[in-house]
Amino acid sequence: MRRPVITARAAATFEPVGRSVATARAFVRDTLQGWGYADVVDDAVVLTSELVTNAVVHAGTAADVLCLRTDGGIRISVADRYPEREIPLQNTGQTVVHPDREGGRGLLLCGALAARWGVEYTAAQKHVWFHLDLPERPAGTRSAGPALPVDALPVAETRVRVAVVQIDRGGCVTFWNEDAQDLFGYDPEQIIGKPLTDFAAWPHTPGTGTGIAEALQLSRWEGSYGIRGADGRVVPVYASHLRVRDTDGEASTVCLLVRDHERAILQSPQRPPSADGTSAPEGRPTDPFEVFIGSPAPDDLDGLLQRTVERARDMLDGDAAYLLLATDDETELEVRASTGLPSARQRFARVPVEAGSGRYGSARMPAVHEDLTAVPGAVPLLAGTGMRSVVTVPLKVEGRLTGSLGVAAESASRYTNEEALRLQFAADRIALAVERARLTELEKLRRGSLSFLVEASDLLAGTLDRDQTLALMAQMTVPTLATWCAVYTVADQTSEPELSYVLHEDEDRIDGLKTLLKKVDPPEPVPTPGARVWTAPADAAHDAALRTSLRSLGLEESARPSKGPGATLATASAVGGETVVLPLVARNRVIGMLTLGKPTEEHFRQEILELAEDLSRRAALALDNARLYSERTAISQSLQRSLLPPELPDIPGVEAEVIYRAAGEGNEVGGDFYDLFPIRDGAYGFAIGDVCGTGPEAAAVTGLARHALRLLAREGFGGPAVLERLNAAILDEGARSRFLTLLYGELWPQDDGSALLKVVCAGHPLPLRLRQDGSVEPAAEPQPLLGVMDDLELYEQTVTLAPGDVLLCVTDGVTERREGTRMLGDDGLTDVLTTCTGLTAGAVAARVLRAVERFAAEPASDDMAILALRVPEIPAA
């Protein structure tokens, strides 16, 4: 067997932390998209996610991811550093891991999704690898059509316009000819330099078909999509893309576009079957399917269905044809292809299948309607199209209804049972191929959906911020699932739904959409699961746009414009399609609604609605978690703020400044605390302390200490008596008690401009006194801390601050600031304080804080409090 040739390689190593899984997914996705292999991205991302999770979460080691591009496909290997950890093997007597178990799913997925996979052990690593084959793309063919009479030629406008658009390697328009300007209404200066994706209405579904970015990278591509014109309406076009390079080697894509009903101008003719009808060019028997559908057959479902309706229309010389596919339960039919009808309006529209007489009772049997005007509503798909007669036949596989094929004409009595029989023969030829292609598309969609939900869950789990969660919900749905999205939130069961977030794929239309939705009553918060249709936005937009048009023509009575920006024609076009509402239910309560919408005359397909329903369940839980976190954070912050002292009092003749920092995210109060308060006329108390530990438990003792100090001091107790009683109160807390270091003092401003202080230092870092001459000395002596011993004998010391002196009090979060083995310490703090001569109390505290922050690169991990008291200098007479 020939060894595959490796043509590209990419590798990365991811640390053993949870966030590495998302990083690994992004690495694989970017690598494969950069190689141009978007067809296998979703499968590769899902398998990589599971295998990296096994390595970094379950094995607890770093993960080495290696991507190899070969001439035969893609090989991805995930290695961990735990070779002793074996994997479960089948057919060895071991129990295979159940899919609902937490671990082991990666190997099951490898077996289900990969073409080949395996495990390799080395002395240092275990490698799990998988190989994904690339889908084959058929090469194009040349052919010529015979001479035809004039009345058999395809119909086109008198003046045929072929838009020529050139796209650079970044997807931006570099050339826009006059026919493109006539077709879509944009002048070249309005569109050159902008991405084509800003104007293309691409019928793309996650995991299904080719996206516009991928189509522009292919050497050749043909198909249908839409271009949003300057008036906001979507112009269906048929396009032929050709990838070219200039003399400098720069690649670009040339796009030729015509109106969709003029597709024959650009569409490559298909190779006809052999002349004798018995043998193909290779000598094999002719497949009846190929006789009808042509060869080569399209390799994608949309192409196959479109070819089917065109051949059915030509076979019965009809004016229009359509094909509907049945849902899994055969209760509804979904429009998937049409010709001669407004396809943009009908695509993915759904109609019920009724067993008896009713709107679509003929779906399970061939039927001919000679005149639809005599039976209004018999074929709701053709209502308002001008079609009079229609023949419909079922598509069945093993007796099960899989779809319905119909051909219609504008004249009555056009078809008989003979045409129904011919069409049924054709339907029988293509039914199995259609079902096979549908199942293949469904499998790709489910794989893409799995990849989408994995990334969506990861993003939603990564935030507890309510506004960010709302934004993520909208950004994940637009444009992947819908053209626009609105999120309503419900505060409680008695509150009305509130419009909280609006997003449209065209940012210029967000404001108009938001204004329109605010004028419409919000949808009812019904807890019933599943998507339900909501017509209010489309109706309101249509009415407002109609009034705007009448006012512009001067035909509306009281033609005064309404206040504020009205719904323009562009806004009406943006929301004129199907709109659905999905409830956001968390903990058995409706907390909001997710509203998804399509532009004019577009519908959602059932698989997209099921994916959106799954996303809404995950988003609801994430939104409710964010709400609970916000509420608990607000309560916590409110309680913490109640433990902080109010504003500092003004002390005559003394400057005071406090800087406080609590350790831990979201904490406003920790184990360090301070206070400065009036005791009685002319006397003030101050305190700075440190409770053992940080967080809520330490904050509880902080509140006890601060309030007890104020109460005891105002009862007339001196410093030692205050601290002895506080010591007893802390010990009374029993198992909840914590020891406490505390510097407490009382201050009396003097008439001569000085200040008298009496301080007690119970196990706390000693206060430092800065004199005017720059000398620094301790202002107290150390004494036992609180909360340890029952009997304390404390004493107070008297300090007099002369004019210009500063008393600096700090907690150990300042002196014990570390970087490696270095510590700021008492000496370092003294050195900082010696440079503060002549500074105000606020400047002294700020300089100390700056010195602490600059001492180490890492943020502080301990609470910190700084209290500076300064007696101003007496101005010279």
Automatic annotation (TrEMBL):
SMART domains: GAF (SM00065), PAS (SM00091), PP2C_SIG (SM00331). CDD domains: HATPase_RsbW-like, PAS. The keyword Ubl conjugation does not apply. The keyword Hydrolase applies. Gene3D superfamilies: 3.30.450.40, Histidine kinase-like ATPase, C-terminal domain, PAS domain, PPM-type phosphatase domain. Residues 265-288 are annotated as: Disordered. InterPro entries: Bact_Sigma-Reg, GAF, GAF-like_dom_sf, HATPase_C_sf, HATPase_dom, PAS, PAS-like_dom_sf, PAS_4. Keywords: Hydrolase. Residues 164-194 form the PAS domain. This is SpoIIE family protein phosphatase.
